């Protein structure tokens, strides 16, 4: 708690505070024009195919990142927290996700073996590699993990809300991240991140080696995730100045 909270009065957990504080960029990442174009049915299919190929590359890099978070959870040594089970379930879903990308690519005629990473994909994957380093705190890595998944969950769930005109052939993609089960998984990740942030902020984990500035590092990491996500969507639309949309 922040010391200002009153008994019985709900208070914001750290991730709520961040989302409110950085609302503009959060909205930029979760309500990007690419997502809005899927939702209103005007999406350029060449942009969707570009996103598909680039996201396949991203997801392959995301797997070792999640594995590195699993290692950090294990090293924390708190078996009763259930963190490892949540992270393991995420790794299982990523296995399905990779199979889905392959299937979807063949449906859309995208040859994944011929897709080269664009600069925003390379930059984002490099960022994931930085976060995999053993010296990166579990709290920081969890904050990134939650933010990465939450952006997709909120974005694609928006394409399934009532009134959306998402084309039928894209609904399965939206379901993948926009379904309720994925929403619950993201809440579990968020709870882990908030619990860690609370522990670090209150200094209640003297036996765990956490750096004093882990909370501010986690906030900066959260912001960087949002920026990378916006760049990734821009690239998909062809509005990043690196990749012109195919005619
Ligand atoms: C760029 C990006 N960000 C998030 C996700 C969700 N795993 C994803 N597949 N790709």
UniProtKB/TrEMBL annotation:
Biological process (GO), any one: thiamine biosynthetic process
Documented EC number(s): 3.5.99.2
Catalytic EC class: hydrolase
The protein's annotated pathway: Cofactor biosynthesis; thiamine diphosphate biosynthesis
Catalysed reactions listed for this entry: 4-amino-5-aminomethyl-2-methylpyrimidine + H2O = 4-amino-5-hydroxymethyl-2-methylpyrimidine + NH4(+); N-formyl-4-amino-5-aminomethyl-2-methylpyrimidine + H2O = 4-amino-5-aminomethyl-2-methylpyrimidine + formate
Domain of life the protein comes from: Eukaryota
Family: Belongs to the thiaminase-2 family.
UniProt protein name: aminopyrimidine aminohydrolase
Organism: Prunus yedoensis var. nudiflora
